[in-house]
TrEMBL record:
Name of the molecule in the record: G-patch domain-containing protein
Keywords: Coiled coil
Domain G-patch: 1-36
Coiled coil (UniProt feature): 153-180
Residue spans of biased composition, Basic and acidic residues class: 35-53, 67-78
Length: 679
């Protein structure tokens, strides 16, 4: 560090020269006791060297005991005690080995030991140090020479340590050079292999370019001639294909021919054009390739959480650009100008053929911008009296492909169906294909729509236009009603017949049975005729079966009375019997029974319980089409007639039925609702 013997420490030599010494304070003396100074000789010499004035009498020496002086004089003749210093000798090889690496052999040649009287040859320098002979072993002799030797030994040891470190560094450098040489050789070999592969790729690309130029002059060119070249690029040069984006070369080669082919292509007549060829080149064109970016996780308070994805707008691939700029305009022209939603199958076939192959943004554009606007307009303009196609023909073929868009299309279609039923009259036939829409609607919504728009019209048809005349029977009104069997819930349909058909039928039967010369055989045939007029599914309905059973009971009663039947056979009052049966059932059942919902399983709500309870007592629970003034809850009419007249107006709130009580509405039980509705 720049220090020289005989000079002070520091760059300018202002530091101490002699090492720091300690001075023992005499026994029994404190600090500065009786003028005792603790300054050592070393500190005095250093002070004088710096130019300070120091007195020799500065220190007051303590008195020495007489016995101590005598003991020191008596020990003066004795030799000083020898202090044995253990010296450890190390060879150069040991020092280098301790430095971390085994050094190479020195190879210094023959070594002669000339320290003794006669020279001798030794194996190593270390053997010289093993000699026990020294010129002098007295440590008190020639101290200057011994000091100089120590300085020389220290300097040699320092040089030896430096040489050992340098040898270790050279060994490390040698290893690094060997590794670097191997790496560079491998890199040169890889570069040479890469150059060779790039030359082969260039040859294939040149073949593709020459093939594209030849096909440019051919009128009816085929894309199949490119398949061997594209396959060769993918199989033999897959790494280079992705690394150097060779799909740009593929798309550039086929674009002129694709433009000419699409210009002559009619997508609606031939939806499979080009798609089979493109599918075979799917890997070469990089169709729908997903960029799989590894998801990193971040520690959030000790938990692993994936950061939100970063939305980055990616540019189109060459093939996506080809589809967007060449293929999609042709599709847009054909759909806008040549396709009609009333004949959806060509467009549906085209979409099904290409949807799994197209990129998502191209497929969505085709559906949202080209197809669905025309479908929406066709549904909005659809008129059952004017259009020859049904509504489901416009809508149903697209349902498997709409996904989350289905509610937009089906919402318009449901509104059209409701409008159709509102404008329907009892003299018209059942709307064509109306049954297929039953599964589209929620069962409750369907029943409410039928109760509001169809049941009153069918009830009026039976009440006003249907007459029972055994001599000249007109069955058309009843046939029109029966044609609705599969579209109306059985409980509602049976109530319709029980309230509008059977009272008339039983009255005619009673009149016939009280005639003086009645023929029971003719009555039985007439009964069989009417029962056979209904389908088996209608005959098994509880209310319908009960009506015919009531007719049999009336016939049996007339047979029992015989000649007294004209005077003693009571006229059947089906209305009064229904009221009595409802009152008895209400008294018997303290809690409303739960009836299985039709069509599909639903969540059981209090409204469904009220509807089922009303149906159990031959009552209709129909929307009134208005709301209560204060609560703003929708009102419902509970009535035994399908005409919507009479009955009881109620609304449902907080799992209770509220009915009018004077000027206010109060909560009532379901039994009270049935009794008040039958008054």
């Amino acid at each position: 560090m720049g220090w020289e013997a005989g000079t002070g420490l520091g760059t300018t030599g202002e530091g101490i020269v002699i090492p720091v010494e300690s001075k023992l304070r005499p026994k029994g003396m404190g600090i500065a006791f009786k003028g005792f100074k603790e300054k050592t000789e070393q500190s005095k010499l250093e002070a004088r060297r710096r130019g300070e004035v120091v007195s020799d009498d500065e220190e007051v020496k303590p008195r020495k005991k007489k016995g101590d002086q005598q003991q020191k004089k008596s020990d003066a003749w004795k030799r000083p005690k020898k202090v044995k210093v253990k010296v450890e000798h190390k060879t150069y090889e040991q020092i280098v080995a301790e430095a971390g690496e085994e050094p190479a052999s020195s190879n210094i040649g023959q070594i002669i030991d000339a320290t003794g009287r006669t020279p001798r040859e030794v194996a190593s320098i270390a053997d010289i140090s093993l000699s026990s002979w020294t010129p002098s072993t007295d440590p008190t002799r020639i101290p200057e020479v011994r000091h100089n030797l120590r300085l020389i030994a220290d300097a040699c040891r320092t040089d030896l340590d430096g040489l050992a470190r340098e040898a270790k560094a050279l060994e490390e450098r040698k290893k690094w050079i060997v590794q670097e040489d191997a790496r560079l050789k491998k890199k040169v070999a890889d570069e040479a292999d890469l150059i060779a592969r790039m030359q082969q790729v260039t040859l294939v690309v040149d073949e593709i370019n020459s093939q594209a130029k030849e096909l440019a002059s051919v009128y009816e060119a085929s894309l199949d001639v490119f398949s061997p070249h594209f396959s060769k690029l993918l199989t033999q040069f897959a790494l280079e294909f992705d690394q150097y984006k060779l799909d740009e070369i593929v798309v550039a080669a086929i674009t002129p021919i694709v433009r000419r082919t699409i210009a002559q292509w009619n997508p609606l007549q031939d939806p499979f054009g080009l798609v089979s060829t493109f599918r075979s080149w799917k890997q070469a064109l990089k169709v729908n390739v997903v960029d799989e970016t590894p998801k990193t996780q971040v520690d959030i308070y000790g938990a692993r959480a994936a950061p939100p994805p970063i939305l980055v707008e990616k540019p189109m691939t060459p093939f996506e650009s080809l589809l967007w700029n060449v293929w999609l305009p042709k599709i847009r022209t054909c759909i806008n100008n040549d396709w009609e939603p009333t004949d959806p199958h060509p467009a549906v076939k085209l979409y099904e053929t290409w949807s799994t192959f197209l990129p998502p943004f191209v497929r969505d554009n085709m559906l949202d911008q080209l197809i669905l606007p025309k479908v929406h307009k066709a549904v909005a303009d659809w008129n059952p009296r004017r259009d020859s196609v049904s509504l489901q023909t416009l809508v149903f073929p697209w349902l498997p492909h709409l996904g989350l868009r289905v509610e937009d299309v089906m919402g318009d279609a449901r509104r059209k169906v409701k409008s159709l039923l509102r404008s329907w009259t009892a003299k018209d036939e059942v709307p064509k294909d109306l049954g297929v829409w039953r599964e589209v609607f929620d069962p409750t919504d369907w029943d409410n729509m039928i109760l509001k728009n169809v049941i009153p019209k069918l009830g009026a048809l039976l009440r006003d236009e249907f007459r029972i005349n055994p001599r000249n029977q007109d069955m058309k009104p009843l046939e029109r009603v029966i044609s609705w069997t599969n579209l109306i819930r059985p409980s509602i349909f049976s109530q319709l017949l029980e309230s509008e058909f059977f009272p008339k039928w039983l009255d005619v039967l009673h009149i016939w049975l009280i005639q003086p010369k009645v023929s029971f055989e003719e009555v039985a045939q007439w009964y069989s005729f009417w029962k056979g007029s209904f389908p088996e599914s209608v005959q098994t309905m509880p209310d319908v079966a009960r009506g015919f059973t009531r007719g049999l009971q009336l016939m049996n009663k007339a047979i029992e009375l015989g000649p007294d039947a004209p005077t003693k056979l009571p006229r059947p009052d089906l209305r009064a019997e229904q009221v009595a049966a409802s009152a008895a059932a209400a008294a018997k059942h303290s809690t409303p029974p739960v009836i299985a919902r039709p069509a599909r399983v639903q969540e059981i709500t209090f409204r469904s319980i009220v509807e089922d309870f009303a149906s159990l007592h031959n009552l209709l629970f129909m929307p009134a089409g208005r709301a209560h003034e204060k609560s703003r809850m929708p009102l419902f009419r509970v009535s035994s007639t399908v005409g919507g007249k009479g009955g009881l107006l109620v609304y449902i709130q907080d799992d209770a039925v509220w009915a009018p009580d004077g000027d206010e509405y109060r909560a009532i039980t379901l039994e009270d609702m049935v009794l008040r509705a039958n008054r």
